[in-house]
Description:
By secondary structure, the chain is mostly helical. It folds into two domains: 1-104, Orthogonal Bundle (Fumarase C, Chain B, domain 1); 106-262, Fumarase/aspartase (Central domain) (Fumarase C, Chain A, domain 2). The chain has helices spanning 12-19, 22-26, 30-46, 52-70, 83-95, 98-101, 108-144, 164-189, 208-214, 224-229, 233-261; strands at 149-154, 157-163, 191-192, 219-220. Helix 3 crosses helix 9 and helix 4 packs across helix 5. It starts with 11 loop residues before the first helix and ends with a helix.
Amino acid sequence: MKLWDKGYGTDKIVEKYTVGNDRVLDLKLAKYDVQASLAHARMLEKAGLLSKQELQALQKGLAVLMERIENGTFTIEEDFEDVHSKIEFELTKMAGEAGKKIHTARSRNDQVLVALHLFLKEELTDIKEDIRHLFDTLIALSNKHKAVLMPGYTHTQIAMPSSFGLWFAAYAETLIDDLFLLHAAIQTADQNPLGSAAGYGSSFPIDRSMTTRELGFATMKYNSVAAQLSRGKLEKTVAFALASVSGTLSKLASDMILYLSG
């Protein structure tokens, strides 16, 4: 039964339409949900909320799930609400009651949010490195071709003499602005929301600093309500940064099309 199922009948066609590709996209968060669950379990054991035996069972089960995720055999069937409920179901099968206890001091809210933070942090860091490599390539080409003349265009008309060196360097410098925005997005993602629960924290003696270290975050979202208020803001920050990169690459491609069409 799905997590939010209230026992009402739902038209399968309507359900398929509303769910769309959610399960496919959720698979991208699977390994990050496992990573966060492992850090949370270790913290619960340290806080005395899990026994050593329960932690060992959870670690073993999470390792099995991570292996399945990495080799592509982990799937989310239609019977499950999302990746988080599927992982919890599988973990409970392998670790017994400990699989349910892992949700102690954790809400679906911060569980989803921490997986998203981890995913975006890693993806944005990879993109940032790709942009840096492109920057280095453009600078190298600028230095190599700084004396090679080319026409400078305005309104798609030849206007003034210019050089390939100036053109390559222009896009290299523009990428610096994009890197500033990507760095800001990474900083926004690099804050641990785990432990904020449904928005008001937990009465259990949890150690959020521990999970922050375990997951490699630079810092945490200190205010639990602020952590939940960040939902949507992170995605908008990321979208704005990527839109800036896309704009630069679009202009670069447009220039190349113009030069090659003559």
